[in-house]
Design goal:
By secondary structure, this protein is an alpha/beta fold. Helix content is 37%, strand content 23%. It has twelve helices and 15 strands. Strands 8, 9, 10, 11, 12, 13, 14 and 15 form an eight-stranded parallel beta sheet that branches. Strands 1, 2, 3, 4, 5, 6 and 7 form a seven-stranded mixed beta sheet that branches. Helix 5 packs parallel to helix 6. The chain starts with a helix and ends in a 14-residue tail after the last helix.
Length: 338
């Protein structure tokens, strides 16, 4: 962690309700006892955050009136411990220290002066960028890793790889459209060369192209994340090796007692290129059927498979709550300046 990042985090703690931090020692640990008389560890000067409440996110426990000692990119002491002589002390009484947050589904704005520092200001120290619309995002990732841009650790997806016709209007977003195995494999090789950390797959991929993506990604050393395609069951997606499934659509459709009927309706969806609204209009009545025929036994079967395969679900429920229930969405309170 470079000095500018340390200063930014410390100032964020003074002005907000959270300080980003990771790793802890207890006050009774040998490390905590050793740091007490020192103002530096190696070449790094110690910063002491005093009077804070430390949140243990694993248990929910709150430890009040704590001191947190930071040296470089490490927390070297936590507890009711003395502040080393010569350390930089920030009195943050009434503030909280929590581990750095991870947002697993983001689409960042195309300005390095907005998204990267804004994540940190809100305590987010890791993000998973879920589709590259501009190669500049790979540059952000690399500059953050090198310490030349202030921002969270970024894991960055490829361009969206979708079937033909794609849900996206090409005038709005460039998508890699594939309709056969050869095209699917070429798309994987292309995004690997462009610098993607993983392949982002989408809803309208056909089964053959989708399976080719999974195979080619394994061959070139990439993982696959994204939507569960309409033509592929969630069980096939999980067993095929896709590491995460984004949004709740596929999962909701998979736990119905009328699963066979739901799958037939899902496979029957047709769209024109770029007509995302049509896709939603066709999916909604299928979701209604699934919601009203929820099967606990089916859910146990599906969830058990996901767990065994270590398939993650990123439901993005906050986003869908805003989109699907806008009349019930509370706005942020205005800042004093407004």
């Amino acid at each position: 962690m470079n000095s500018s990042r340390r200063q930014f985090l410390a100032r964020s703690a003074a002005g907000a309700a959270a300080v980003v931090a990771g790793g802890t020692f207890t006050a009774s640990s040998p490390a905590a006892a050793l740091v007490a008389p020192l103002a530096t560890v190696g070449t790094n000067r110690i910063t002491a955050l005093t009077g804070v409440t430390v949140i243990d996110v694993a248990t929910g426990h709150r430890a009040r009136r704590q001191t947190v000692l930071i040296s470089g990119d490490r927390i070297i002491g936590v507890g009711r411990i003395p502040v080393p002589r010569g350390a930089t002390e920030l009195d943050l009484t009434g503030k909280f220290v929590v581990p750095g947050l991870a947002d697993m589904h983001v689409h960042s704005l195309g300005d390095e002066h907005v998204s990267p520092p804004l994540y940190l200001a809100n305590g987010v120290t890791t993000v998973r960028e879920m589709a590259v619309t501009d190669p500049v995002l790979y540059g952000w990732r690399d500059r953050i890793d090198a310490g030349t841009l202030l921002g969270p650790r970024m894991v960055v997806a490829s361009q969206i790889v979708d079937g033909d016709p794609t849900l996206w209007d090409p005038n709005l977003l460039h998508v890699l459209v594939v309709n056969d195995e050869a095209g699917a494999r070429a798309a994987v090789r292309r995004v690997k060369a462009e610098g993607a950390d993983f392949v982002k797959v989408y809803s309208r991929l056909g089964p053959a192209a989708y399976r080719a993506i999974l195979d080619e990604a394994r061959r070139v050393g990439l993982t696959v994340h994204g939507h569960a395609p309409d033509q592929v069951s969630i069980q096939e997606v999980s067993s095929g090796g896709q590491r995460s499934i984004e949004h709740i659509h596929a999962l909701a459709l998979s736990v119905s007692s009328r699963a066979a009927e739901v799958r037939r309706m899902q496979r029957a969806i047709t769209i024109r290129t770029g007509d995302y609204n049509s896709w939603f209009r066709q999916v909604h009545p299928i979701e209604w059927i699934a919601a009203n025929s929820f099967s606990p036994a089916r859910a146990a079967e599906v969830f058990g498979l996901l767990r065994r395969n270590r398939t993650r679900i990123t439901p993005t429920l906050t986003m869908h709550n805003v989109l699907d229930r806008p009349d019930f969405t509370g706005l942020d309170r205005p800042s004093p300046s407004t």
